[in-house]
Amino acid sequence: MKSVRVSLWFLWLLTFSLLLFLRGFLLTKKEVEKFSSCHDYPHTPPPSGNNPSSSCWSNPRYKRAVLLLVDALRHDFTVFNDSVSQPEPWQNKMPVFRDLMSSFPNRTRHMEFIADPPSATFLRLKGLTTGGLPTFVDLGSNFGASEITEDSWVKQLSLNEKKLILLGDDTWMNIYSQYFHRAFPYPSFDVWDLHTVDNGVWKHLLPQMKTPDWDVIVAHFLGVDHAGHRYHVKHPELADKLEQINSWIEEVVMHVGEDTVLFMFGDHGMTSSGDHGGETRDEVTSSLFIYSGSEFGEVSEEERAVFEKERVFQTDLVPTLTLLLGVPVPYSSLGSVIPFLFLTGTEGSRTHLQHVVNTNMNQVFRYIATYSMLSSEFKKTDIAKIKAQVDEINSKYNASKSQYSLQLVSDMLRVIRVIRDLCSAHWAQFNLVLMGFALFVMIMISLGLFSNQLVSVHWWVAAPIIPLVIISYDKLSLWTGVTNPITVLITLSSVVLTLYRPVRSRLLTALQRRQASPLINFSIRGIDKVSEVSTRYQR
């Protein structure tokens, strides 16, 4: 009886420590189901001339936008390096970006596009459309994507009577089924098929761009991602897909009008084995290329250090796209506008940029203030400190009477990044202290069980492996659904080591029963009437 009580006590402690570990690993957040609107400006009314009645939150810079999403387009796939004498099979396959940058330096920009882990496609689409930070708890949705209820630029386009056309990955239909003016979806989970989706997208892309009834086109190519999953980054099939996409981009650019902006980007990268889902640099670093139908405004050296970064977060696309088109930023967005896109070279464009960044800052602070009232995750002192900074900046902005100040714009962008970093620390970064403590408790419990001879040494070895297996699913990218042999081996080894002794004992007992005499057989079963049975057996 005592051993049973001790076993139950250790089992409770083990369960508790495992829950502690999961608390540090499976980060969660609450969804704020509020929506931005033209009548719900996040701050005081904007300065005169910045927000006429015909626009919403800001004047539109463009009338149309084309989004070419090349799934799993790692940034170094898009960089052309002349100095490499023996390039890797995937290198220098996409010279289109170098050529366009050389031919149209005032219309193009090329930069790293950083994803927030986990780098699974559904979660990246969620981040790219809502501007939020998905957590590891959301990973289950990657295999059965359901409709996204948070505010997004997809919904904002629909609410503001903008027409959106979808081409490609049918995941978009699962998460935003009712918001497309026209849609040409193709199945996305057959990773052995490298061409059906891409050929279907290309079949419709240029004809749709030539039609008059659209504001935004989303074309989601899957061939590069599927080539990585089926093969690896050095396989010729991946190189062929990169060359194919390169040729298509060349043609698309020729059909971009003066009132249109083209965003070409990836949702995540991939490892050398072609997988993704984790947080390694290769997995989270994709590429963003921007081509404008009209020229950007000139940027001074001082402004360049603030406005033109070599790396931007994927969440930054959300406020940038919406404010360029003159629609509200999604309520829960944590992104920061890409400033140089709002400079046109005309008088007043810098004043307008300052208004846009101020709008962005107040929108992000409004979200974090609302969230802090729904949850106690953030310290009140942190929110109060940010509020004091926001109030000070707004006071300076209102007092400036629309006079442009680079320092003021820089301060606004800094506050946005502070808020984003605060949220990232809670939702996108593991609590290593909690996880480490839980592992320590598991090891001590295992030692206690072993010292009391309640379990075998195999359990002592296997118990701490449980959380390590969970970690391996992230580090080795099994989230994608592509079986990683190392992860499977660790998982099976843990199970086998855990069950080795009891399974072995049962097998040996069963074997002995078959080979032994009825007397031994009965003895093993604990039958007390040995003498009686023995007598009958002798007769």
Question: Any overview of this molecule?
Answer:
There is one protein chain. This protein has 20 helices and 8 strands. With 539 residues, the protein is of the alpha/beta class. An 8-stranded mixed beta sheet has the order 4-3-5-1-6-7-2-8, with helices on both faces. Helix 5 (171-175) links the parallel strand 3 and strand 4. Helix 7 packs antiparallel against helix 8 (236-253) and helix 19 runs antiparallel to helix 20. The longest helix has 31 residues, at 485-515.
Indicate the topology.
Blueprint: H1 2-25, E1 64-70, H2 96-103, E2 108-114, H3 121-130, H4 153-159, E3 164-169, H5 171-175, E4 182-186, H6 196-209, E5 216-221, H7 223-230, H8 236-253, E6 260-265, H9 281-284, E7 285-292, H10 301-307, E8 311-313, H11 317-324, H12 349-374, H13 380-399, H14 406-427, H15 432-451, H16 457-462, H17 465-475, H18 485-515, H19 518-524, H20 530-538
Parallel strand pairs: 1-5, 1-6, 2-8, 3-4, 3-5
Antiparallel strand pairs: 2-7, 6-7
Helix pairs in contact: 1-15, 7-8, 12-13, 12-14, 13-14, 17-18, 18-19, 19-20
